[in-house]
């Protein structure tokens, strides 16, 4: 009951801020909630809109898969080698803090326009957090677990499946949750710079032609999707930590 009340308060606060921004800026910058919901509903009935949704989801799925697999694999490799991990961690942390917009000209030269550029933008945003969380999980692994596995004469496969996986999974899932959000952000920004399809393109095109209804409605739908997906992953994250 308390959690439901908290959600009601948060939603009410969001709508109050939204209405306040509309009262301050007017139709030139934002549309009010009811008109935004009405136009969003209209967009959902347009096949062309779903084509753009499909383009974004395809790029996002590819970028997320690459970020997850490469991030976890490289994180495990660096984490298992203490010296390599100590050298790589500050470098990765520094790269993570660099504004990614500075890399866009280089990425466009390498990948050009289209799907490959969007996927690349997503990967450079999402892979490093996954690597850092995975390395931290390995670094914080209790040595007694590995000693116990050696005492029990477990094979490498048995050690990985029955000891390492349960111990590392909670932190890895947290990294994947963070990587999920940042990968989505990267793909959307990539569509703004390097694509003529997708939800990011709809947002930037709406800004360019001053279609406030389009910009506000698409932004709202992206936010709703991101919040819902993050909520599901947060529940999975908590469940993994609960059973850890």
Characterise the protein shown here:
The chain has helices at residues 2-25, 33-43, 47-80, 82-97, 104-111, 115-139, 143-151, 156-194, 199-208, 212-243. The chain is globular and about 70 Å long. Helix content is 85%, strand content 0%. The protein is built from ten helices and no strands. The chain has 244 residues and is mainly alpha-helical.
What is the averaged pLDDT score? 83
Helix share of residues? over 70%
Tell me the total number of β-strands. Answer: 0
Number of helices: 10
Structural class by helix and strand composition: mainly alpha
Please state roughly what percent of the residues sit in beta strands, choosing from under 5%, 5-15%, 15-25%, 25-35%, 35-45% or over 45%. Answer: under 5%
Radius of gyration: 22 Å
Essential attributes:
single chain, 10 helices, mainly alpha, 0% strand, 244 residues
Summarize the structure.
With 244 residues, the chain is mainly alpha-helical. 85% of the residues lie in helices and 0% in strands. The chain has helices at residues 2-25, 33-43, 47-80, 82-97, 104-111, 115-139, 143-151, 156-194, 199-208, 212-243.
């Amino acid at each position: 009951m308390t959690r439901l009340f908290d959600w009601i308060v948060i939603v009410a606060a969001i709508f109050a801020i939204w209405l306040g921004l509309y009262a301050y800026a007017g139709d030139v910058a934002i549309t009010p909630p009811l008109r935004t919901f009405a136009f969003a509903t209209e967009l959902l009935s347009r096949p062309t809109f779903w084509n753009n949704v499909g383009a974004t989801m395809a790029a996002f799925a590819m970028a997320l898969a690459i970020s997850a697999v490469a991030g976890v694999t490289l994180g495990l490799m660096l984490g298992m080698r203490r010296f390599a991990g100590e050298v790589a961690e500050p470098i990765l942390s520094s790269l993570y803090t660099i504004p990614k917009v500075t890399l866009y000209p280089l990425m466009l030269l390498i990948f050009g326009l289209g799907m490959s550029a969007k996927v690349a933008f997503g990967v450079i945003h999402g892979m490093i957090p996954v690597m850092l969380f995975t390395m931290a999980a390995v670094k914080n692994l209790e040595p007694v677990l590995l000693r116990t596995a050696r005492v029990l004469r477990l094979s490498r496969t048995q050690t990985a499946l029955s000891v390492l996986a349960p111990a590392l999974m909670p932190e890895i899932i947290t990294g994947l949750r963070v990587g999920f959000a940042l990968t989505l952000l990267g793909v959307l920004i990539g569509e703004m710079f390097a694509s003529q399809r997708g939800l990011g393109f709809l947002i930037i095109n709406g800004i360019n032609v001053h279609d406030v209804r389009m910009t506000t409605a698409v932004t709202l739908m992206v936010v709703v999707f991101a919040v819902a997906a993050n909520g599901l992953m947060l529940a999975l994250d908590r469940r993994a930590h609960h059973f850890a």
